[in-house]
Design brief:
heterodimer; A: alpha+beta; Rossmann fold; 5-stranded antiparallel β-sheet; 9 helices; B: 311 residues; MetI-like fold; 2 domains
Amino acid sequence: MGQVVLKGINKFFDGVHAVKDVNLQIRDKEFMVFVGPSGCGKTTTLRMIAGLETISSGDISIDGNVVNELAPMDRDIAMVFQNYALYPHMTVYDNMAFGLKMRKFERSEINKRVLEAADILGIGELLTRRPRQLSGGQRQRVALGRAIVRHPRVFLFDEPLSNLDAKLRVQMRVELKKLHLRLGTTAIYVTHDQVEAMTLGDRVVVMKDGVVQQVGEPLELYNHPSNKFVAGFIGSPAMNFAAVTVTEANGSLIAENSGLRIKLPDETAQRLRGRIGREVMLGVRPEDLTVAGGADLGHPCFDAVIEVVEQLGSEILLDMKVGESIMVASVEPTAGVSVGDKLRVAMRPSRLHVFDPQTEAAI
Amino acid sequence: MAISAVSDTTLREAPPPRRHRLLEDERWLAFVLLVPTIVLLGMFIAYPFMRGILLSVTSSRVGMPGDFVGLANFYKIFNDGIFRTSVYNTFLYTGVTTVFKLGLGLWLAMLLNRNFRGKALARAFILLPFIIPTVLSTFAWKWMFDPTFSVLNWLLYHLGLITGRINWLGDPDLAMISIIIVNIWRGVPFFAISLLAGLQTISPELNEAAAIDGAKPWQRFWHITWPLLLPVTMVVMLFSVIQTFADFQIVYVMTGGGPANATHLFATYAYQIGIGTGLLSEGAAISLAMFPVLFLVVIVQLLYIRRVEVR
């Protein structure tokens, strides 16, 4: 079992309100990812769950027991640190065995568990080495090994992949996912990388300035962001935003600004009926923009001038000037476009997002 | 081909001055850079050391060049009761103070390594005994241990712990304890600040990882902090042992080696015989007698440090 519940959690650091009223239910066996920009309170929240940071107010419970006052060692959790935190004076074997030795396990049981973990992680050859003799990826595995030998109720990960190079990070990400499927232990994972959050998480918590912005499955966050921050944070390249004024013409709604004038599709229009004459924030993802052609007949379209063409191989990113503002479109690699071209760009009507310009909440 | 031809001709056209070419050679450059250090060490360490050795095998006194007498001076001092006392004192003094300085220094360092208000100020204050010139602070201590005006006696008396005066510097054992106390007081800051610097290189994450791994505070100290601090500790101990073994100022000011030569150390006794009494050669022999011991200490500790650091 490993169900973690956060109820009204607050954290103050010297008068700074770092974590604000966080309520979360992390289910048993779930892989929960906390994501957000630096300073958003995600690591602090994780450290409070670990018991490395005191809780200013609220309750954290694991499997129904409030653990606020329990020392880290009594919470039955294991943590993987950003810098691995391997004991430099111990061999890989001793690093992994340390937690079991401290908990007075039988020597044979320690041996069995360490070898088993080493086997899962493929570090059997390294057991007699010291951390300084290992590469970054190997250290990462040892840090994982140290966590899994304990068979804890919950794994806590504090940006464990951020010190690896890009290629290794992708590889370890897949391995972490496999490891979680294999062990089935509840995992709470902190990262600032939205790709890690999307690929690893069963559910994702997006945080900003100590406040939870949205909790949901990755695609839910991508398709239905609850506010402008989540919309801009999830997805790469980031969503395009344009401030537009809603007007009515011939019974249908029009969104316009200095460089843009589009007829809003019915579904969006319905939500904006009450806002005629007012400003809203329009959002559209780069991948939902296409170079207008026959198939897009009837889709909202606008004119743009290409400023930069970024060839990624599998796609092309176009930085376009639309009126006064810049928008990015991700288009097919076959699109023959070059800098300076004037284009007609189409939006996928079902993929338009609108936000309130003041509260930034989705409309 | 074309490139090498060009560089060949440029070389031929403008050969650099010989002086510059010599300095281009790293072996020569290294030698040139080392010269100032070699000259200084030679003038102020090697030469006096050699003169000391030469002096110790003669019968020189102040005003008398003397003759070669072989090891007679060494034979003489090894049969000298005061010399034996000072050897014993030196080992006792070094041993006891080092243990206390390490213990107290480590304790202070761990306290200072925590986060608290006024941390920077506390760290600066800790250094005071180390900054004040030793002779001055030792004079202050001398007054504190003075049999008549002793503030210590006054305090102990008013706390009701003693009824009469304690003659701190008049009793051989108490005098030894007194100078040991002063040395510890003076030496703790060096240990504390050096060990604090060592502690700060240990990532707090290691302690957190150990806490989650189930290690209790003293287990974390024993399994994590202490082993990681060991290289720094050994270096600090090395410096401290060398300095304490050859200590002079505290004993010279506090007791002058008294009462009745009971608190002499190598250095003070060598000074008393060599300069005070004028028996230069014998004084040289006494100070040279320190050398093998210190040499051994340095070798052992350096080997140990290397072993620890290789890990």
